[in-house]
UniProtKB/TrEMBL annotation, chain A:
InterPro entries: FAS1-like_DH_region (IPR039569), HotDog_dom_sf (IPR029069). Pfam families: FAS1_DH_region (PF13452). Residues 25-158 form the FAS1-like dehydratase domain. This is FAS1-like dehydratase domain-containing protein. It comes from the Bacteria. The lineage of its organism: Bacteria, Bacillati, Actinomycetota, Actinomycetes, Kitasatosporales.
UniProtKB/TrEMBL annotation, chain B:
It comes from the Bacteria. The lineage of its organism: Bacteria, Bacillati, Actinomycetota, Actinomycetes, Kitasatosporales. This is Beta-hydroxyacyl-ACP dehydratase. InterPro entries: HotDog_dom_sf (IPR029069). It comes from Embleya hyalina.
Length: 175, 157
């Protein structure tokens, strides 16, 4: 589905495999977000609620693994910032580059290494892996692309990797 | 919550079924909890008129959070997810009754002595698959084993 387009514009082809947008998280991992995340999916895992269990099993509190990307996402607004603050900027760059106003995510791979601990500052960086030729789907006409994101903590330890397959598209006029 | 050990599992074992009614609050709370501010996860008009879908829908990190919760409810807190791969074929909308089911597809011990299972999971609504996932989860091989103790070369997710 994401077979490489050998006729990609040079500027896009040059970005494949290149590290982009290395960014440090805006705030340290904290329990408020951990509890809000748990509440959003009714997650009663005592690792996140019970100090004794967390101390015994993980040497202190950790964050849900699936919350990894949240620690690197920008605030919706911040002093001095202009426009919408976006995570996964490579995805939005491709939408603009190919003039594809809409997009969805279709596939996601998460690999987890060291867990995020309270107080960790998470740094992320993005790598474009592939861009497909134009394809028509029931949503419209567009392209699939694969973007990898790597996450490290303040000590340089690898926390995890994510791989997103996005589909940017323009809707077709209906008869 | 159980404390599942590897010796209690075999290929073909079924995971418990879990169901939840998805509401607009489910979608919006899940998006904001994962710091995803994109409007298709909280703005009905944007989702329908711009994206061409029927309603706002669960975002990707929140689907991952539902899978994590589902898996750890089953394994107990010692279960440590190493990898999750999922494919979203149709969004999950408010009004959907989301059903999670799963099957153990493989049970193994790696070269470091870490016990692993691979589970195939389906998220369905009214019997139709919306998302499929494959998860690789480390489980204790004995009651004293703790996969969370593993670091570096001893952790191969």
């Amino acid at each position: 589905m994401t077979a490489q387009d050998t006729t990609l514009p040079e500027d896009v082809a040059a970005l494949i495999g290149k590290v982009q947008y290395e960014k440090r998280g805006d705030f340290p991992a904290e329990r408020g977000y951990i509890w809000t995340s748990c509440a959003s999916v009714q997650n009663g895992n005592p690792l996140f609620w019970d100090d004794a269990v967390a101390a015994e099993l993980t040497g202190g509190h950790i964050a849900p693994l699936s919350l990894l990307s949240a620690w690197a996402r920008p605030h919706y607004w911040a002093p001095g910032a202009e426009g919408e603050q976006l995570s996964l900027q490579v995805h939005f760059d491709l939408k603009i580059r190919f003039e594809l106003p809409e997009a969805i995510m279709t596939d996601n791979t998460n690999v987890f290494y060291e867990p995020v601990r309270l107080g960790d500052i998470v740094t992320s960086r993005q790598v474009l892996r592939s861009v497909s030729p134009e394809k028509r789907t029931k949503l419209g006409i567009g392209r699939f692309w694969v973007i990898d994101v790597e996450y490290h903590n303040q000590d340089g330890a690898l926390l995890g990797t994510e791989s997103y397959t996005g589909y940017g598209y323009r809707r077709e006029a209906t008869a | 919550m159980s404390d599942l050990t590897l010796d209690r599992l075999a290929k073909g074992d079924a995971l418990p079924t879990f169901g939840v009614d998805v509401t607009a609050t489910t979608v919006i709370l899940g998006a904001l909890a994962s710091r995803d501010w994109r409007p298709m996860h909280h703005d009905y008009k944007f989702a329908v008129e711009r994206q061409g879908v029927q309603d706002i829908f669960l975002n990707t990190p929140n689907q991952a959070a539902w899978f994590e919760r589902y898996l750890n409810d089953w394994t107990g807190p010692k279960g440590r997810i190493g990898r999750m791969v999922f494919r979203m074929t149709k969004p999950v909308f408010p009004g959907d009754h989301m059903l999670l089911t799963g099957t153990v597809d493989d049970v193994s011990v790696d070269e470091t002595g870490c016990g692993w299972i691979r589970a195939e999971i389906s998220l369905t609504v009214d019997g139709a698959v919306r998302t499929t996932a494959t998860a690789r989860i480390a489980l204790p091989t004995t009651p004293d084993d703790n996969p969370w103790d593993r670091r570096g070369e001893r952790w191969k997710p």
